[in-house]
């Protein structure tokens, strides 16, 4: 998979589908300044079916204002550490029709870049670095985002691969979790491509553009 410009977690999923999406908050800009995204921009950043050709939607893209429920899901650490000064939470999930692999995306949007930096470290060290399993190994994502981490390990009972990545782009922290299907579909390269999609969409939103980055099937 490669990324091109397209013109045109279960408990969280259930709650988000019921919540829907809305608008409000500070606006993004294209003047080079780091900005806090609006709820509408967060919703547009979350990858949708057009961004994922060849994949089936499991959870349609949604975004919500951050509250106690979503803090407990996005930041499942004591005291919901890592969610301080977070404003919005968004998510979507997809199934690869060919391989059976599945991926979930999530975005935590903060009110400042400093808050995102602080949340980034807390969330990776305190929770997401363990999501790929005890024997997972780190790997390099390359030049994506302002900060990035990635681990790949075993996600399934039959030894299927699973990868977790976390990336910060400006005022947002982005997480992808991918698990291979019966025919594979998840390795370091595919994890890089999936991460690049949501990271570029976040960058486009913070530049004041309409997010349009997508996978090339």
Structure write-up:
The protein has 217 residues and is α+β, with helices and mostly antiparallel strands. 26% of the residues lie in helices and 30% in strands. A 7-stranded antiparallel β-sheet has the order 2-3-4-8-7-6-5, sandwiched between helices. The longest helix is centred in the C-terminal third of the chain and has 19 residues, at 188-206. It is globular, with a radius of gyration of 16 Å.
- Overall mean pLDDT stands at 86
Number of helices: 5
Percent of sequence in beta strands: 25-35%
Instruction: Report low-confidence residues grouped into runs of 5 or more.
Output: 1-31
Helix and strand sequence: EHHEHEEHEEEEHE
Largest sheet: number of strands, sense, barrel closure: 7 strands, antiparallel
Write out the strand line-up for the largest beta sheet, numbering strands in chain order: 2-3-4-8-7-6-5
Assembly level: single chain
- In terms of structural class, how would the helical and strand content be classed? alpha+beta
Proportion of helical residues = 25-40%
Shape: globular
Measured distance between first and last alpha carbons: 6 Å
Q: Can you count the beta strands?
A: 9
- From the alpha carbons, calculate the radius of gyration and give it in angstroms: 16 Å
């Amino acid at each position: 998979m490669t990324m091109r410009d397209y013109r045109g977690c279960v408990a969280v999923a259930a709650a988000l589908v019921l919540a829907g999406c809305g608008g409000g908050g500070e606006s993004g800009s294209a003047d080079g300044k780091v900005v806090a995204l609006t709820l509408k921009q967060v919703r547009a950043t979350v990858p949708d079916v057009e961004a994922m050709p060849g994949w089936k939607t499991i959870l349609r893209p949604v975004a919500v204002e951050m509250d106690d429920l979503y803090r407990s899901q996005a930041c499942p650490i004591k005291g919901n550490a890592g969610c301080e000064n977070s404003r919005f939470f968004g998510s979507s999930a997809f199934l690869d029709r060919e391989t059976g692999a599945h991926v979930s995306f999530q975005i935590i949007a903060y009110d400042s870049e400093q808050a995102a930096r602080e949340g980034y470290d807390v969330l990776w060290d305190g929770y997401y670095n363990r999501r790929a399993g005890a024997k997972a190994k780190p790997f390099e994502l390359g030049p994506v985002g302002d900060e990035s981490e990635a681990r790949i390990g075993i996600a399934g009972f039959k030894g299927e691969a699973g990868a977790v990545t976390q990336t910060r782009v400006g005022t947002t922290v982005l997480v992808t979790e991918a698990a291979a299907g019966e025919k594979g579909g998840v390795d370091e390269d595919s994890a890089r491509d999936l991460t690049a999609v949501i990271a570029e969409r976040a960058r486009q939103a913070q530049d004041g553009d309409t997010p349009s980055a997508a996978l090339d099937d």
